[in-house]
Amino acid sequence: MMHLNITNHKTGKAMSEQALQQFQGGITDMAVPVAQIRQQVGIIQQVMKEVMKPGEHYGTIPGCGDKRSLLKPGAEKIMMVFRLSNDTDVQVIDMGNEHKEFRVKVTLSAPSGQKLGAGVGSCSTLESKYRYRKAGHKCPECGAEETIIRGKKEYGGGWICFGRKGGCGSKFEDGDPRIENQNIGRVEHDNPADYYNTCLKMAGKATFYTKASVTEEKRWR
Ligand SMILES: [Zn+2]
């Protein structure tokens, strides 16, 4: 043990052996949390430096300014380093016509079991990107989709099932109802169930991402 010679600032006398031991004990007790905090900060800095790559684990989000945000892979890394665990609770709400909304609640816990917070995210197949698709003309001859183009005026106009787009080469007159009566543009997907998985994943992603970011912000403050 390091030998200390400490004098009492009031009496000018050297501290008694007992008082000295108490004093050193007090410092040692305090020194533990300080060392732990340093260690934790050190771990975060080490993770940031050695593991976190800009653009992969953290980065700017388009439309959200210059502020760097923690991305999902980064959140996962931090959770791993601090041994945080997450409990996921999924709720499925029937929206009619086979459409569903997925609500995901994620609760983050410390290794001690202490709950650090919860986040909720949702996604529904009624959101336009899952509900609609952009439809082109379908070839009445070969059944191919997205292969029909306008024929050039100098070649007589009309419609062509374009070979270079994988079409069969069939030609159709201007005004042909088999082409022109087709419902094109924004059409509903035939089967919302095709998007259940994607939607659930998106809901989970949103939740997880919000949660881990919020918790880490708290931790770093
Ligand atoms: Zn065709």
Strand order of the largest sheet: 3-4-5
Structural class: alpha+beta
Kindly estimate the percentage of residues that lie in beta strands according to DSSP: 15-25%
Low-confidence stretches: 1-9, 216-221
Helix coverage percent: 25-40%
CA distance, first residue to last residue: 36 Å
Number of extended strands: 10
Mean pLDDT: 79
Discrete helix count: 5
Plain-language structure description:
This protein is an alpha+beta fold and 221 residues long. Among the domains are: 79 residues, no CATH class; 47 residues, no CATH class. 35% of the residues lie in helices and 25% in strands. The chain is built from 5 helices and 10 strands; from the N terminus they run H-E-E-H-E-E-E-H-E-E-E-E-H-E-H. The strands form 4 sheets. Strands 3-4-5 form a 3-stranded antiparallel beta sheet. A 3-stranded antiparallel beta sheet has the order 7-8-9, with no helix packed on it. A hairpin with a 2-residue loop joins strand 3 and strand 4. It is elongated and about 110 Å long. The site of zinc ion (ZN) has 9 residues, from loops.
